[in-house]
Amino acid sequence: MERYQIRGGAALEGRVRIPAAKNSVLPLMAAALLTDGETRLEGVPRLADVVTGCKLLEQLGAGVSWEGEDLTIREPETWDPEIPASLAGAMRGSVFYLAPVLARTGRVTLPMPGGCNLGPRQIDIHLEGLCKMGAQLHWHGGKMTLLAPHGLRGMEFTLRLPSVGATETLIMAAATARGNTLLRGVACEPEIRDLAAFLNRCGASIRGAGGPVIQVEGKETLKGRSWRPIPDRIAAATYAGAAAVAGGRVTLENCPMEETRLFLEMLEQQGCRVSRGEKEIEIFSPGTLKGGAELVARAYPGFPTDMLPLAGAVLLKSRGYSRLTDTLFQNRFACAGGFRAMGAKVTSRPGGILIQGGLPLRGAPVEAPDLRGGAALLLAALGAEGTTLLSDRGHISRGYPDLPGSLAALGADISPFPAP
User: What confidence tens digit (pLDDT) does each residue in 390-418 have?
Assistant: First the structure.
């Protein structure tokens, strides 16, 4: 259990560089298994989920090494196609290893993956698509085993909803399958474009990534290459939101402009000034926000679901009423109880929350319920009177290399608090 003491009221000032996107790095690490030789991922943050992914790669037989922030993955000489429960349960991203391991060995065993408790997050679309490509699915003792002794074959498949994970799984499966694959109704997130671009650099033939239809011409082999993942749009929103709540002036280096546009526009509507440069963005907040907002999380290019709790922390400080709705995850606002403990007037309702903003917040003991909810509570604490004690069972470190330390470097009054 990590514990942090946050004294609110300190304005932020300075610069922060946005790291590579967690939601891009994790599938890229798995996709490296599709390639012969070495893959080098540049500028990778050492998140808890990345460390778990490295352990998982080593368990499968791959070589893993670090040189500064660059991660090198070498194809296994001997494969172990069974993913242990201890690693599968530690992160949702373990599901990304289904397709690469199945494609390379004809067999993979995986317990149900873990991750944040955001409500039902089935992997039935992943499995349906893989089975249509020729895999055989067997369940035994809480584990699934997929068999494809004769390899995977191309197919036409329409996703019943635009699942990001399922889209990435089926792109990876199709990259080395026999024949052509046509995927309709896919997700369009930037991380999918990044995965497809990496695989294309390795020799794949993937067209249409970023749109609703993707075509893949299967290739017999792929060759490992170097790749720099895209910047993390959720981390960028987190630091921008921190500046808005605490007040002050923060410059975001390596900020993905278009991918954070909706969040930045929301900050401008609340009274922040956002200056957009060629490769960086400056956020100035007077510390007093106004207006309220109505936000609905939707599949890309809609408002990102991961940014919604962060927006909620900002709107606690905004004089006005706000309505936040998530159409993707039913338990997205587990942080609402922590907001209320700090004195916020937040009403939970099916699919979202109502916020009466602009009321004084006060420090209180709170616990991070999940990754983005924990970050949102940390942001809210920056704008609260007095001291907040934030307890975290490792959620925040899954998505940020050192969020408390980075905010402290900008001037926030945050320090580790010894366990009782």
Answer: 999 999 999 999 999 999 999 999 999 87
- Neighbour-count burial of 255, counting CB atoms closer than 10 A to its CB (0-12 exposed, 13-18 middle, 19+ buried): buried
- Cα–Cα dist 34/31, whole Å: 5
Per-residue pLDDT, 89: 82
Report the distance separating Cα 80 and Cα 59, nearest Å.
7
Number of domains in the chain: 2
pLDDT tens, 146-169? 999 999 999 999 999 999 999 999
Please indicate, yes or no, whether residues 104 and 177 belong to a single structural domain of this protein: yes
- The partner residues of 295 in beta bridges, in order of sequence, read 324
Domain boundary among 198, 227, 256: 227
CATH number at residue 292: 3.65.10.10
Q: What is the pTM of this model?
A: 0.95
| Dist. CA 334–CA 201, nearest whole Å | 40
On whether the CB atoms of residues 357 and 319 are closer than 8 A, the answer is yes
- Which candidate, 217, 123, 124, places its Cα nearest to that of 174? 217
pLDDT (tens digit per residue) in 91-115: 878 999 999 999 999 999 998 775 4
Query: Do 255 and 220 belong together in one domain?
Result: no
Residues 332 and 373 in one domain: yes
Is there a catalytic annotation at residue 54?
A: no
To the nearest 10°, report the CA torsion of 323, 327, 328, 333: 30
Cis before residue 301, ω within 30 degrees of 0? Answer: yes
Q: In sequence order, which residues have a C-beta less than 8 Å from that of residue 185 and are 6 or more positions away?
A: 158, 159, 160, 161, 162, 212
Give me the pLDDT at residue 114, please.
54
Q: Which of 227, 251, 277 is the last residue of a domain?
A: 227
Q: Which amino acid is at 134?
A: G
For residue 134, what pLDDT band results from cuts at 50, 70 and 90?
Answer: very high
- Check 54, 116, 202, 272 and give the catalytic one: 116
Q: Which domain holds residue 12?
A: 2-19+231-416
Residue 315 · residue 322 · CB < 8 Å: yes
